Amino acid sequence: MKIVALFFPKASIGTYLVAMAVAIALPIFAFVTLLLLQLEDNQRSTLRRETAQDALALSRIIDRQLQDMATTLRLLSSSPELENGNLASFHERTETALRDNTLFVIAVDRAGQQLLNTRRAFGTPLGKTANMTALEAVMASGRIEASDVFRGRTSGEWVYNVTLPRKNDPVAALIITQNATDLRKLVTTEGLASGWSAAVIDESGHVVAATGPANLEPGTPFDPRILPALIAPRGVFQDETILPHMLLGYAQIPGWSWKTVIWGPIAQASILSTWRFLIIGGVALVLVAVLGAYAVARQVRTTIRDIADMANRMGEGYIVSPVETSVIEANQVAIALSNASFDRSQTEDRLRFVMHELVHRTKNLLTLAQAMMRQLAKQSDSVESFRAAVADRLEGLVRSIELLTSEQWGGVSLRRVVDIHLHAFPQSREQIDISGEDFVVKPDAVQNLGLALHELATNSVKYGALSVPQGRVRFEWRDVSAEDKPDALLRFTWEERGGPPVTEPSRSGFGTTVIKAHAASAFRGTVEIDFRPEGLLWVLTAQRATLERE
Q: Domain Signal transduction histidine kinase HWE region: where (predicted)?
């Protein structure tokens, strides 16, 4: 702490801002000196980057040409004439379509014998393709490939092929061929500095097409000392022994075996003597920064004091209004403090309300639990049966409370209430048919309806339809029109069938109390219970207002 205090003593914000301005300005001079020394290196780096980008741009141009040729081959491969074996019509159609281009199409069989060549009239005797190595490689790979440059037998020119293998006979492959001199039209040095050349190199390292002062002809081997270094997808090559005072950029054509290269002399840009101007400008900048820091410090000091006053008043419990300053961020802090003071007041009110609600709900739950245990104690003949009965009812009550808690006691979907209680009996999921229009149920209604459903399901699993595999239960609810009653009514129906024969119990237990008296009272309605021989029928007619959350 003493060391920190030594470097950062107690001082006004103005002092710290002025010190910060000076501390920033002092390294500027060293930085400017470093910039002057590294300017040439930066220019070289920029030239290297631009050279690689120019090579990449050229590769994209050549890639588009090769892709266009590949697309043409795919279209020709699916032509009806070729599929029907009508090579004469295919030759005529293809020769007409490509008449305005410098491209020619060759069809060969698996042995490399030319079946047609649009450089010659159809029916002219033709030999095998001159580049059998490229054809065999394509047939082995099964994909479209571009060949190395070679001397064509038919044209007598340096050409290259793009070959599409086919699984059909007799045409095993389609080839588009083009003279290398025609591809040269795409190899341009526009945009490059004077004295730069550009070339396309095939997989074997021979020039396919080139332009520029180097004047490389098609088929010429590119410098073998350079090719081994061109292994990355793109980059630059510089070697004062091989290319003195020159730079070479290259790029692999994506999806093809060719590369594009550009190379030329490095332009040595002269560095102007601007150090005096930079120093004078730096001193002026420091003076302006100090004056500006002092002016800003005064403004910031006033703003901080206003914000601190707001915070003090907020700490005393007041709802504070935001102050208006010339600093946007300070205004945002002031608004945040004002909102926080208002939110704190609301939160305190909400906490008081929540505490009141918690006390109210706790009392209701305890009252319900006490009443339930009193009723069960009267009907239980042993401690064990009393414990089991209490545990079973509490489990149903806990299920409703967990559901309400997950929704923050804001009401729960009626369908979820039904599902969570009836599906608590996994063996009966396929035996219960549930239907009715869904709506949000009040928290109190969730507990009361949950108790009734739990009792109905428990009784059915023990004695009713859910106690046997063939038993079925239909539980539905629907609106009931009542012309003589102004309140909207809902009717819940629990109907069992397919279970053991039903007889009316001789005495009324806690479960009957829950599904009849408690349900009728809780929902201000009526409950009808019919112990039919074929299965229990329970009907609750309740006021919708006691269930639905507004």
A: 357-438
